[in-house]
Design goal:
Elements lengths: L4 H4 L2 E4 L2 E4 L4 H14 L12 E3 L1 H7 L3 E5 L9 H10 L3 H5 L2 E4 L3 H12 L4 E5 L5 H9 L3 E4 L4 H15 L2 E2 L6 H17 L6 E5 L4 H13 L4 E7 L4 H8 L22 H10 L2 E5 L1 H15 L5 H16 L6 E5 L8 H12 L3 E9 L2 H10 L5 E7 L5 E9 L3 H14 L3 E4 L4 H10 L10 E9 L4 H7 L6 E8 L5 E9 L5 H11 L3 E3 L4 H6 L4
Helix pairs in contact: 2-9, 2-10, 4-6, 4-9, 6-7, 9-10, 10-12, 13-14, 13-15
Length: about 525
């Protein structure tokens, strides 16, 4: 990738304007972008957001890490800056015809609020897949929502049709000089708020408006600072364009980080990003989830997935480039559906290397379970899924807590294999993480005396071993399902084969164990999906 312009053709401030010593068309574009950023009208509605230190993450990475808090804007996203800067420049005649845009949510809220401040009608075309929280927010701000298509591209095409029919001013989400300039004020604030050197600024990329604006002003004011774009690995829109040397349209993009799920970068943003960005880092869903957790741990703020993309990239880049220089990530937004947090919490531990998910084959024998748990060398079990098969072999899906990431995971797997266990690493297996872990079990045959019990285990080391030790050798463990969800008790579903003549002894053993439980043998869910007798 070509290096930034400011190193090869520095701009000088002369007679009230920025002039390149060797002007080119790109230099002229740069001058115009910088002028627009410095004169942008954003603070009628936008806030100058803080640049907060992430102390816990800084200690972990052994270098200063700061987070630009664009989640604190009135619409919980940086998008208000570009939208208002564009709308503020429209004439009264243009405003009288209203404004229109296409957006997956954050730009929509910015346009709705900006239009309301300028007393203009706003029509917002949004994909039908847009999170409900964003649709509701746009309506609350006075925007007229039109749901159309299942992607940004379909919504964009429909918005353009409505523009032609109504004469409303189209407010592009990223590929507009005034929008780019408004977003660039984020970089202007970063440079002003942190007077000390900054090694790198990390910017999320969807269509590229924020990245282009921030890169332009940072490279002008701080040419020694690296500006690094970050994209999801399943939505590498700008990286694909730069690699191809031209804007390209991706066939599809992942929707987890919906705020950056754009199939085609802008022409203007591409021209700026290909020259000004030092590199682009790609991150996966687990890394994004881990970054959401990092932001919460340090600030108690909940970022949307696209809002945490930049921090995920910062962590990945820092791991590959050790040092002591300050790093800045932009938290671009906090518009996340509450139910999305279930997935985030489930994947964050894997994303930060704090959990290994393993498929382990062993003899279906109580002593082998004990030996397996002992071989974990004191590590906590975070998940344990097992169902009796009747063939003398057990296939366990187990989660194990780690403290030293991938290296420890590899050491653990090697140790288990040396101990005679057949182990498959499922930590990076998307199908296993999304589906198979929840499907371990099912109907089985040959268990006429199976009892199904729902327990509350104490969340402390040794709780599972104590449970195993409470069972008589004749009572076979036929099912076990446990997943740590951060509670003070572990919620366990267990199956145990107990002959009728042993029911009294079994009740006494459970009473001595002392773990609260509920009998679920006759629960319709258990009868329909677990009982094969």
């Amino acid at each position: 990738m070509r290096k930034n312009l400011s190193r090869s053709a520095p701009l000088a401030y002369t007679n009230g304007s920025f002039v390149s010593q060797n002007p080119t068309l790109l230099d002229i574009s740069m001058q115009d972008t910088i002028r627009r950023i410095l004169t942008a009208r954003v603070y009628d509605v936008a806030e100058e957001t803080p640049l907060d230190p992430l102390r816990r993450l800084s200690a972990r990475l052994e270098r200063p890490v700061l987070l630009k808090r664009e989640d604190l804007q009135p619409v919980f996203s940086f998008k208000i800056r570009g939208a208002y800067n564009k709308i503020a420049g429209l004439s009264e005649t243009e405003l009288s015809k209203g404004v229109i845009c296409a957006s997956a949510g954050n730009h929509a809220q910015g346009v709705a609020l900006a239009a309301a401040r300028r007393n203009a009608r706003a029509v917002i075309v949004m994909p039908t897949t847009t999170p409900g929280i964003k649709v509701a927010a746009v309506r609350a701000l006075g925007g007229q929502v039109v749901l159309h298509g299942d992607s940004f591209d379909a919504a964009y095409a429909h918005a353009r049709d409505l523009e032609r029919q109504t004469g409303a001013a189209f407010i592009h989400p990223f590929d507009d000089p005034e929008v780019i300039a408004g977003q660039g004020t984020v970089g202007l604030e970063i440079a002003r708020q942190h007077a000390d050197p900054i090694e790198a600024v990390f910017v999320p990329i969807g269509g590229g408006g924020l990245a282009a604006g921030v890169a332009a002003i940072i490279k002008f004011l701080r040419p020694e600072t690296r500006v690094i774009g970050v994209e999801p690995v399943d939505a590498p829109t700008m990286k694909s364009a730069i690699d191809a040397g031209q804007v390209v349209t991706l066939n599809e993009v992942g929707l987890f980080a919906d705020g950056v799920a754009v199939r085609r970068a802008g022409e203007m943003t591409f021209d700026l990003c290909k020259t000004l960005l030092d590199e682009i880092v790609l991150v996966d869903t687990d890394a994004i989830c881990a970054a959401i957790k990092d932001i919460f741990d340090d600030s108690r703020a909940i970022a949307e997935p696209s809002g945490a993309v930049a921090l995920a990239g910062l962590k990945a880049w820092s791991a590959a480039h050790p040092g002591t220089g300050a790093l800045v990530a932009i938290n671009s937004g906090a518009n996340v559906n509450f139910d999305r947090l279930r997935h985030v919490a489930e994947r964050a531990e894997i994303g930060e290397g704090a959990e290994a998910l393993l498929a382990v084959a062993m003899r279906d024998d109580r002593d082998d379970y004990r030996r397996f748990l002992t071989s974990l060398d004191g590590r906590s079990v975070t998940e344990f899924n097992y169902r009796w098969s009747g063939d003398g072999q057990a296939q366990i899906f187990v989660g194990v807590a780690l403290t030293n990431g991938a290296d420890e995971r590899e050491d653990l797997i090697a140790a288990l294999r040396d101990g005679g266990y057949a182990v498959e690493d499922m930590s990076d297996n998307e199908t296993a993480k999304l589906h198979v872990r929840y499907m371990v079990g099912g109907r089985t045959v040959g268990l006429p005396h199976e009892r199904i019990l729902r327990f509350q285990f104490p969340e402390r080391p040794g709780a599972f071993l104590r449970f195993l030790n409470s069972l008589q050798p004749a009572w076979a463990l036929t099912l076990f399902h446990y997943r740590n969800h951060g509670d003070d008790v572990g919620r366990v579903l267990a199956g145990i084969s107990v002959p009728p003549q042993d029911h009294d002894r079994f009740a006494a053993a459970l009473a001595e164990l002392g773990y609260p439980y509920v009998e679920e043998t006759d629960n319709p869910a258990c009868r329909l999906f677990l009982d094969g007798a």
